[in-house]
Amino acid sequence: MPVCDSIRRMKVLVTGATGYIGGRLVPLLLERGHEVRCMTRDWESLTLDPWKDRVEVVTADAHDESSLDPALDGCDAAFFLIHSMKGSPTRFAEDGRRAAANFRDAADRAGIGRIVYLGGLGSEKDELSEHLASRQEVGRVLAMGKTPVTELRAAVIIGSGSMSFEMIRHLTEVLPIMMTPRWVETRCQPIAIRNVLEILVSVLDDDGSDNHLYEIGGPDILTYEQMMQIYAEVAGLRRRPVIPLPIFSARLSAPLVGLVTPLPVDVARPLIESLQNDVVVCRSSPQGYEPEGLIPYREAIERALYSVSHREVETRWSDALTTPGAPLPGDPVWAGAHMLTDRQVAGSKARPEDLFWAVTRIGGDVGYYAMNWAWKIRGWIDQVIGGVGLRRGRRHPEELRPGESLDFFRVAEIEPHLGRLLLQAEMKVPGTAWLEWCAEPAPGGSKLTQTAWFVPRGLVGRLYWWALLPFHAPIWRLMARRMAKTAERRQELSPG
Fold first, then answer.
1. Pair (377, 348) in one structural domain
2. 230, 232, 233, 238 alpha-carbon torsion, rounded to 10°
């Protein structure tokens, strides 16, 4: 496999820089000497990325054509990595077409040299799912303009934090016996994330890729059952007995996937619908990146598990499902809204920075400091009703970034210099909810102010809040106190 060390240094726009692929592509482009501009709907979502000081950040939205001209101005090339799976298939297909058309027209006006698009693998001769068809339609829309387009189509991408890896991992680890619907017999050609990134960078400098469609995949063609069994072997688990079920329906399979994996049902359903088709490489791949020369599936799993165990997960699939710019508790949109709050204050002998450290460890393996069993039950209930539950966990046990997922929350804002963390709830609730912590200096140490915010939706929302408040209030009170005590213990172990 060739070493991708581009001679031409370019100014490159990366859309989707907060997502799974984009968040890993940016540092690789910087490493190869390119000048990178990141496009995001919310500039704060990049403020804590380790490479943030080495890139230019522009605020733009592909659905707002007027915002794209400044984003593309002066760029030599652009990566179109925008992909939504929210809403109905019809909705995200229409959103995808509109975003692609806007971006295509703006690229034409800017006169950039190339658009690189990563789409989904699947034979155009087959009746594709709405999800796969929409991804290929985006490629066709982009290609209708004057700007040369290089389209790459990949199937299952294997890497720590990838959607496919997490689905395979949790299905295999959670289910001791696999009662498998027919979609586990579908063949696919998985590819390692490392290879995907190398190929993306390589075509950037390849004039021969202009207006070219490539299909990329690893050397192995496997069924989903085979991929799960190989995962079990690599992870040191016993081989899973298989009981075949004569069903394919995504409607029936998605709730099970949503229950035992981090994927919410509304994400799992279009993904499973896409599994009706074999997805194997039938067209040419970029020169030097033919399947037989890429990382085998087993090695890709080994690399992903190593990154997970060594806490080296750079990005996760769930990071891309954020809603940048969503209204926060203090925003004008909520003025006059029925805002319900619960505020707890806890004093601590610890320094404010130690107190904030305790706050930012919340969730994941640490849990919620108080009655973790109750939080687990709430997470299980959320999954049963189609929510995200607790299975998303954390990307890193101590590090948080704006926009990334944390169990059934999303990091809405984090301001370490102010000792402030704001989480927005993504569990199924009849309203909009947040949890906020502020750690600040106080006589004798520090003070933690913890606030739960809830904007109810109709009468059901109000009843929900008041019905659960007798249970929530003591939990929240205990949370704040235990965070304060955890900070004190840390300070005792690291004086000064």
1. yes
2. -130
Sequence-ordered strand ranges (E) for 93-184: 114-120, 149-154, 157-158, 178-180
Are 84 and 42 members of one domain? yes
Q: Which domain holds residue 370?
A: 326-493
Which tens digits make up the pLDDT trace of 278-302?
889 998 999 889 999 999 999 999 9
For 424-451, what is each residue's pLDDT tens digit?
999 999 999 999 999 999 999 999 999 9
CA 79, 80, 85, 86 dihedral sign is: positive
Residue 116 backbone zone (phi > 0: left; psi -120 to 50: alpha; other: beta): beta
Residue 33 CA from chain centroid, whole number: 26
Half-sphere exposure of 174 (CA within 13 A, CB side): 15
Number of H helices, E strands in the chain: 13, 19
pLDDT of residue 363 exceeding 70, the answer is yes
Alpha-carbon distance of 203 to 285, in angstroms, equals 11
Quote the Cα angle for 430-432-434, to 5°: 130
The answer for 3, left when phi > 0, alpha when psi is -120 to 50, beta otherwise, is beta
Token pair 């087959």: residue: 126
Please give the Cα distance from 348 to 441 (Å, whole number): 10
Question: Domain containing 232 — which CATH number?
Answer: 3.40.50.720
Question: Nearest to residue 168, comparing CAs of 246, 86, 275?
Answer: 275
- How confident is residue 6, by pLDDT bands cut at 50, 70 and 90? very low
**Which of 155, 192, 221, 226 shows the shortest CA–CA distance to 294?**
192
Is residue 97 helix, strand or coil?
Answer: helix
Residues 368 and 304 in one domain: no
Which has the closest alpha carbon to 237: 308, 186, 316, 177?
A: 177
Beta pairing, strands 114-120 & 77-80: parallel
Nearest-angstrom CA–CA distance, 344 and 132 = 48
Read off the pLDDT of each residue in 75-98 and give the average, rounded to a whole number.
79
Instruction: Please report, as a single letter, which amino acid is at residue 279.
Output: V
